Amino acid sequence: MRTFLIDTDTASDDAVALIMALRHFDVHVAAITTVAGNVPLAQATRNALYTAQLCGSDVPIFPGADRPLHREPVHAEWFHGRDGLGDQNYPPPKRIAESRHAIDAIIETIDENPGLNLITLGPLTNIALALSRDPAIAGKIARCVIMGGNPCCEGNVTPAAEYNIWCDPEAARIVLHSGIGAIDLVGWQLCRGDANLREGDIAHVRSLATPLANFAIDCNRVAMEANRAQSGEIGIALPDPVAMAIALDPTICTSSSRHHVEIECASELTRGQTVVDRLNLSADARNRGVWSTFRDRPRSVNVCWSIDIPRWKALLYRSLA
After folding, report:
1. CA atoms within 13 A on the CB side of 81
2. Which of 122, 146, 240, 305 has the fewest CB atoms in 10 Å of its CB?
């Protein structure tokens, strides 16, 4: 049985990813921590509680940071709806969140479960704060799967950046520099194209006729229209569930490679860009100044470049059945 700690800014695709983890046969979710991002912190926490309730799970849920480290919060209601769950008027959850702060919960959960898997589905503010308070926890994380970034491709919130990293680039830089030995970076682009849930996929999910299946489609109604408006693609794009699929089954990632990855924090034009040293140029003499912090470090970020789309969707369907 693997132990997961999940950090999320729970909106529509996050909720589906949580279902996948909470329903998986060999995963124990020790805790869920929430962070401001797609929606304000209180809404993210409410959405996580509601999703856990749908799964019949009593996993403890801990609210965390309500804003980025140094920047003003910018939410994504335009993509996920005002409530983050497609404005379907879901009732309030029947239980409340834990009173302890997510930062304390992250440190304690890692200390009590050395070798756990850390899965991040939102801005990395909580994780950066926990690592800053107790750097030793980096060495106790067996694997960190980050849904974030736009390695070597266009962004989805600016031409240069993906939303989760753009929200709090300083936090992302702290996490990537923290010494966590195994980081899998799952960029937003992996949910595009045929990885979208197309009309036939949506019909198949509906045919499962379970509350979870209907919830997964309904809560993404606003996101489906936003996806069409943003990218011209018809279907439901699910970046967080793709990342969760890779967390649950690493072989769903069919092509990956390890690199140094840096986060742009100084430029407003390219704020939050995930700069991947794909050709391993950082050691060249001309680049040693800018990339000096990586000079003596291993290439710890495993960038996923492609996925097995039929297997990712099959795993999703099993979670919702």
Report:
1. 23
2. 305
